[in-house]
């Protein structure tokens, strides 16, 4: 019972730390600032003709944006997920929920994740730590989580650094690739793999694709450092020091996108990690990502109000449309092929 209570407490503490403490990377950035669009002063297009619609894993989206996986398992998380899902439905955005492990261990908290009734048409992503496949979770549990959420996709998140810094973290990652491959074969929905802010390298992406993973979210370095989050939470000096030592560990988001695209031109790819606005999102898309994911900006807005989430989406869409207009493109595919993004 104490372990279950500890998990719920950890969920609440994660939210508090992310909202109140300095948990951003100190020196490492997303790498997107190293790129600049070539300005087109006479685009010869009407902004009203710009079309941000796209598809991802067979689902139609109103814009290439993902409300990245964040939370669940507490009453505040229920409120956050409710507000995010309502807005996601209105704008037809993709949305992920936080790790659902707690819903397996405390079934009465499953409703804090359940948002399908509010967002019947969105691309909705269930979520479980891949390492839990070594701690009692298998096909049956994954099916249960997908069914609970009525999800279109299951995310398996990879977080070895976070587990190392987290007090009593789950650090047995042995043999997971073969278990992921088996899950990809047997689960009736696509399996997507993501990091949690330290990035996925091209060689690792290649192995994951060969294992049958349907999509990848690079979740690169440059945004929230979960080593710093866990360091802030740690009760003992060793764990606090470990988190600070590895606070800047990881592969920048831009590097993840470009390196993975070189070896896998067609894998559905999400860019997250340090994306703060629609211009960052446009750069990530031009580099080869299919969607841009944001977490902390959506979390901060959702804690404030549903209207704050709506306002954030409007800002992001306006910034994306402005980037397209000022590079002379009306569609995302044109932006990707335009060559307008240059490294500086």
Our measurement of the CA-to-CA distance between the termini, rounded to an integer number of angstroms, reads: 55 Å
Which outline best applies?
A: globular
According to CATH, the homologous superfamily is: Aldolase class I
What is the CATH class name? Alpha Beta
Instruction: Walk across the major sheet and give the strand order.
Output: 4-5-6-7-8-9-10-11
How many DSSP H or I helices? 14
GO biological process, one term: isoprenoid biosynthetic process
Cofactor: FMN; Mg(2+); NADPH
InterPro entries: Aldolase_TIM, FMN-dep_DH, IPdP_isomerase
Keywords: Cytoplasm, Flavoprotein, FMN, Isomerase, Isoprene biosynthesis, Magnesium, Metal-binding, NADP
Give an account of the 3D structure.
- It is a single chain.
- By secondary structure, the protein is α/β, with parallel strands linked by helices.
- It has one domain: Aldolase class I (TIM Barrel), CATH 3.20.20.70.
- It has helices at 2-20, 75-91, 101-105, 139-149, 160-165, 176-186, 202-210, 226-233, 237-245, 253-263, 278-287, 296-304, 306-325, 332-337; strands at 35-37, 54-56, 59-61, 65-67, 94-96, 124-129, 153-158, 191-195, 215-217, 269-272, 291-294, 341-343.
- Strands 4-5-6-7-8-9-10-11 form an eight-stranded parallel barrel, surrounded by seven helices.
- Strand 5, helix 3 and strand 6 (124-129) form a beta-alpha-beta unit.
- Helix 12 (296-304) crosses helix 13 (306-325).
- The longest helix has 20 residues, at 306-325.
- The chain is globular and about 60 Å long.
- The N and C termini lie far apart (55 Å).
- 48% of the residues are buried.
